[in-house]
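User: Show me a protein chain along with its predicted structure.
Assistant: Here is one chain, sequence first, then structure tokens.
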Amino acid sequence: MAQKAENVGILAMELYFPSQYVDQVDLEKFDEVSTGKYTIGLGQSKMGFCSDREDINSVCLTALHRLIERNNINLHDIGRLEVGTETIIDKSKSVKTFLMTLFAKEGATDVEGIDSTNACYGGTAALFNAINWVESSSWDGRKAIVIAGDIAVYGKGPARPTGGAGAVAMLIGPDAPLVFGCGVHASYMTHAYDFYKPDLASEIPYVDGKLTIKCYLNALDNCYNLFCKKMRKVDSNFKGLLSLDGMLFHTPYCKLVQKSLSRECFNDFLNASPNDREQQFPGLSQFDNYKREETYFDRDVEKAFMTYSQSLFEEKTKPSLHIARNVGNMYTSSLYGGLVSYLVSKSPEQLIGKKFALFSYGSGLASTMFSMTICKDMSAGSKLERLIKSLNDTVSMLDKRQCVQASVFTDLMDVRTKNYQTAPYEPSGSIDVLFPGTYYLVRIDEQRRRTYERKL
């Protein structure tokens, strides 16, 4: 048995997003909606998407292969591979088994772990599984890899601009630059039909838009208040948002995240003593007697606390939204794309010792708020410095994508939807537009077996 692992967390990360996107301004015009509905109302700029050439297996293969290549990972040093996704294309065979093709080539087949699924929460479940394994008596000294990835597809209508696609791969082990140190988790789990996919012949979800916003904010209320309570047991001086350097959220769309940060301020307001309210929240006394559960769609509360929290949002949360604004909702990888965005917005020196809280939400519903700390190693060539450099290289690929007209995007989505369950099938999407190193679907045979190749 290996020695007990310390400072367990993320050693390396890799982000994958599609090589094509549609501009939300163009999509507004094409959909004949009011100017700013998607760009201001949702806070979105561009939306990445996959043609029928990519599916969840290829997307995750691409992210995994990049992580292995960029970090020179010996696959015999990996003892666990976890996948989080809600993009299900087989009711039995996991995405993890497809990823094992890379391991099998090296004869590395002694690898535990499997897929975790519950809407956008699966990536966090996979991450917790990996961390818990490294910290457990079962750990054999090897590292773990976590893949969170999804393709978010919506039908024509108001939900379509909240789509997206992408994957994040994370190398997990001891002595990490990003540490899940004090182990504080605050979860809220219950049953709701806010967003679900009961039609197995389609990848398009059933969505109750108003209910899913209420569920998200209610889950946030519960997780944040419990998180603060648990943190105060670890640190009696913990003061919620004021004690955090960064507050990151699962991001269905960017405007909801800004509302969520203001919602935490509203919770701090309700929990404060009368004296603290006067000092910390001047000019907001008209909300003294408001009840938390009656304010999810209260415009007065929303406006007042978004104004109050603007500077906190700019400092603690806005840096995490760059990828979400330019790629869209990556479902299970959305929160971790936010982490990537925040990390590349600062220099390693600015990140040293920073403390974060991360809020993960998956409809149906499952949610957790948890803590993360950045290590204090400032040496040249440190793990943190190497991580940031690697992520900067990846994020720079945003500017190398191809913009597709909204009409072409719509046609490509129609092809994808029409042929979702067709077999045998040979995709028609362009291979030329894919980034080098991207895996793509070659064919689906008459027995629905999928074949992939990698673009060199």
